[in-house]
Amino acid sequence: MLVVALSSCGWTEQLNGGQEMSVSVDYMEVDTLLELTQKQADSLEFRLLHHYTYNYNFVVKADTLQLIPREDETNEVCCIRKGDRIAVADIRELDTIWIKVARDQFTMGWIAEDELLRGVVPDDPISQVIDSLTVSRSIWMSILIVLGVVGFFLKRRGLHHLQLFQFDEMDSFFPTLFLILVASLGCLYVSIQTDAPEFWQEYYFHPTLNPLILPPLMTALVTLMWAVIIVFIAMLIEVYHRFDFFQGLTYVLELVGVAMVSYLIISWTTTFYVGYGLLAIYIVVLLWIYFKYIRCSYVCGFCGRAIRKKGTCPHCGKENT
Predict the structure, then answer these.
(1) CA 260 – CA 92 distance, rounded (Å)
(2) Exposed e or buried b for every residue in 201-238, given b needs 16+ CB within 10 A?
(3) 20 to 30 A Cα–Cα from 220, which one of 5, 73, 96, 189?
(4) 103 alpha carbon, distance to own chain's centre
(5) CA 61/CA 63 separation, integer angstroms
(6) Which among 164, 157, 84 is positioned nearest to 116, based on CA atoms?
(7) 3-state SS class at 193
């Protein structure tokens, strides 16, 4: 069982007792497993199931956590506080899983695993960013949607009608691609959380920004994250060159608001598998809008500006035939 589980993972761990062991991403030989002590084998099994083991480092995010001197006593406690860095010193499985953690040689004790994980975050900046974004997700998504609504009304102030979209504002594929990538990211993220949560847990405890060393599902997710960031920056550069500050700001705010709404709708519907169909329809609609209303197929023979169809150039007024 352990050999099969190890065949899909790879890491280097400091086992209890100080022995360092490197586990191949492809397989771990049976002879190597047989040489392990029982405690080392238990450590590897715990690592596979819980994604951390001995000597793993956490940062306390709760105001305080209470540690008891022994897992079967509750009369004496010591406290660790927010911001303290702690390491896993021992693991015991009794009626529940108890973790012994140490801040230093004078401050250490036992705490139930579920209580520990609620009050700490892995000592890695990527994990801490993930935790912060997850905890405050409803807040920052709501702020982005509100900013999108503000941008929508600011851009249309003084108009007698409120056209939902103005497709011909910028003849660039980057806004369309940005919307597609954000929606796809939401669909894939929820799919992993629903159908393969162990991949997300492993990434949370051992994150990396390099998609090439991850399993295929997480490679796709991290690649999509990078693609969203790169396309957004490229879109900002085009907005900077095509609009003045106020027009560019309202354009970006409105687009980000639309992206957040589509992310929420598709990620929510993906939990009961409707989101996959909605994502496909959404992508088709966005591409149809781009090719019909946004893409410029011609160039004016007089001013050299891009135009959508032959005839009078909207920029210089010359006739193109």
Answers:
(1) 44
(2) ebbbbbbeeebeebbebbebbbebbebbeebbeebeeb
(3) 5
(4) 30
(5) 7
(6) 84
(7) helix
Q: Which CA distances in Å does 220 have to 56, 192, 216?
A: 27, 11, 6
Take residue 166 and report the two structure tokens written for it.
Answer: 């103005």
Residue with tokens 């360092």: 20
Whether the CB-CB separation of 167 and 183 falls below 8 Å is answered with no
The per-residue pLDDT for range 307-320, each reduced to its tens digit, is: 666 667 666 766 67
CB 319 within 8 A of CB 312: yes
pLDDT, one tens digit per residue, over 28-78 is 454 555 566 666 776 788 888 999 999 999 999 999 999 988 755 556 788
Q: Which amino acid is at 90?
A: D
Eight-class DSSP state of 24: P
Contacts of range 288-292, beta carbons closer than 8 Å, 24 or more positions apart: 289/165, 289/167, 289/176, 290/173, 290/176
For the stretch 211-231, pLDDT in tens is 999 999 999 999 999 999 999
Which domains does the chain possess? Answer: 2-50 (no CATH), 57-122 (2.30.30), 125-312 (no CATH)
Determine contact, residues 263/185, Cβ cutoff 8 Å. yes
Q: At what angle do helices 174-195 and 245-270 cross, to 10 degrees?
A: 30
Q: What is the value of pTM for the model shown?
A: 0.81
The 3-state secondary structure of 279-313 reads HHHHHHHHHHHHHHHHCCCEECCCCCCEECCCEEC
- Judged against a pLDDT cut of 50, whether residue 300 lies above it is answered with yes
Strand 64-67, strand 78-81: pairing: antiparallel
Tokens encoding 140: 């920052």
Residues 6+ apart with CB under 8 A from 192: 199, 200, 217, 218, 221
Measured torsion, CA atoms of residues 271, 273, 277, 283, in degrees rounded to the nearest 10: 30
> Please, which pLDDT band fits residue 271 given cuts at 50, 70 and 90?
very high
CB 185 within 8 Å of CB 279? no
